[in-house]
Structures are given as structure tokens and as C-alpha cells.
Amino acid sequence: MGSDRQALFAALFRRHHAAVRRYVTRRAWPDAVDDVVAETFATAWRRFEEIPADPLPWLFTTARN
Length: 65
Description:
Helices cover 77% and strands 0% of the residues. The protein has three helices and no strands. It is elongated, with a radius of gyration of 12 Å.
């Protein structure tokens, strides 16, 4: 499961990183963007099993919070 999870997470990251970064850039101070995006994906890694089939709204909500 470990390598499968890593591969699935890597695909999620590649597919949605740019959209999450754009979302955060519009809402956060410029100095905070990298930290918010990193924390969003760290949370996604920790809670990977909870991410729905359409992950982008979940990622946006996580970034907003």
C-alpha cells in the first residue's frame, strides 16, 4: 500500500498543485502562499483516505481553513 499511496498522492499533487496555488495566491499574503500550499498538501497526505473522488473542492476547503 505504501508505494501505491505514494503514487496516488504524487498524481494528486501533480494534477492539482497549480490550481491550489492559484487559489491561495488570490486569498493569502504573498509571504504565506508557499506555507499554506505546503500545509494543504501535508494535510492531504495525512488524511489521504478521507479525500473524495473529486479532490479539488476538498483541497480548496483545506487551504481556506
